[in-house]
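Record Ribose transport system substrate-binding protein, 333 aa.
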Amino acid sequence: MIKRNFALRIAVAAVGAVAAASVFSACSQTVTPSTTEPAAGGNKTIGIAVADQKSLFYVAAVDGMEQAAKEAGYKLITLSANNNSSQQVNQVQDLITQQVGAIIFIAQDATSAAAGVKLANDAGIPIIAVDQKPESGDGKLATYIATDSVKAAEELCTWLFDQIGGAGDLAILQGPLGATAELQRSEGCDKALANYPDINVVAMESANWDETEAFTAAQNILTANPNLKAFFGESDAMAMGAAKAAKQDGREGLFFVGIDGFPTMFEAITGGLTQATMAQQPYLMGQMSVKNAVQIAEGKTADVPELQYMDTVLVTKENVADNDPTKFYGPDF
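=>
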C-alpha cells in the first residue's frame, strides 16, 4: 500500500511561504465590488481574497458573501488570485492599503497563506479564513470556517470500501499537494484504509481539483491497473474526470466518489456515471464569514468561535433525489 508522509510534505511546502512574503509588486487582479454601498458610520468595507473564481465551491462561497453583505449593508472588494499564491499575497497587501475593515481569506496555498495572515495582523485588520487554513507562521485568525475534511473523507471512503466488498485495488486523485483540504482528505481516507487491510492503493496522483487533469491521470492509471475497482477523487471534479476516462475506455463496474456536492455531481450520480459525493456547504460558509466580519466590526469578537466546522451530507443514488443542490451551493446553481 502506498503511504504518505504529511510532516515531510508540509515542511517542503513551507519554503514557498518565505518567498511569497517578500513579494509585494503590483500585479493583475480581478476586482468585483459588491453593488451594496456601506451605510454611514464606521468601516463597512470587507476585503475578499479568494484563490480563484472558476471553482464552483469558491463561486458559491462568494455568492454567499455577497448575499450576507447586501443584507448587512456592507461593501465587498473581491480579488481573485487565479490560483497564484504569490499574487494572492500581493492582493492581501492591496486590501490592507485600501484600509478594509476585515479580510476574508480563501487561500490558494495553505503554506503561503501564512504570509498574508501576518500582513493583516501587522496592520491590525482581523482576518477570517475559509476552507484553507494557514499551516505555518505566527499569524492569528479571527476564525476559521471549513468542512471537517478528515471526517468527510473517512466516512466517504468507508462507504466506498463497503460497496466494493472490502477488498480490491484503489486509485486516489489528490488535490494540490500541501493544501489543507488535500492533507485532511488524504488523512481521512487513510483512517478508513486502516480498517480495510484488503484494500490496496495502487496509484496516487495529484490532479489539482481539476476535471481535465483527472481525466488524463485516470487514463494512465486505468491502463496500468486492469483490476482497478474504484477511484477516490478528493474533489467531485476529479471523480468525474476519472469516470469519464473509464467510460471512454469502456471500463465498466468501477466506483467513482468525490467530495464537494457540485450540482453536476448530483446529475452524474443520478445518471450512474458516479456513485457518491460528500456535499459541502460553501454558500453557508460564505454567509457565515461575512456575518462574523460584521460581528467583529461591531465589537462582538467574543461571539465568534475560533473554529467552525460545517457538516457534510453523503449523497448516493439512494438519496440524491431528496437533496437539492441549491441547499449547498445557493440559489444561482
